[in-house]
């Protein structure tokens, strides 16, 4: 429950600007998951929490799945997802050049 409340709090911190908004943050979190999953950075136990292996074979899709050199820890996965979620928090929707001028 605390994590859900924190995620809702993060979402409320995004401004309604055209690009750097909550939808963009969700897109970046999804892309982070894709990088972690397809990049072979999740252990088999972590994959089982996320995907139903009755309908999807990770080992068949990714040749390194059984020989990962460095799967992320649970804390590293959480940090990756959370940093992706907050990367543009409270963004004003302007570029750095605009702010400098």
Automatic annotation (TrEMBL):
Gene3D superfamilies: 3'5'-cyclic nucleotide phosphodiesterase, catalytic domain (1.10.1300.10). Residues 1-101 form the PDEase domain. The keyword Protein transport does not apply. GO terms for biological process: signal transduction. GO terms for molecular function: 3',5'-cyclic-nucleotide phosphodiesterase activity; metal ion binding. Pfam families: PDEase_I (PF00233). SUPFAM superfamilies: HD-domain/PDEase-like. Transmembrane segments: none annotated. Keywords: Hydrolase, Metal-binding. PROSITE patterns: PDEASE_I_1 (PS00126), PDEASE_I_2 (PS51845). This is PDEase domain-containing protein.
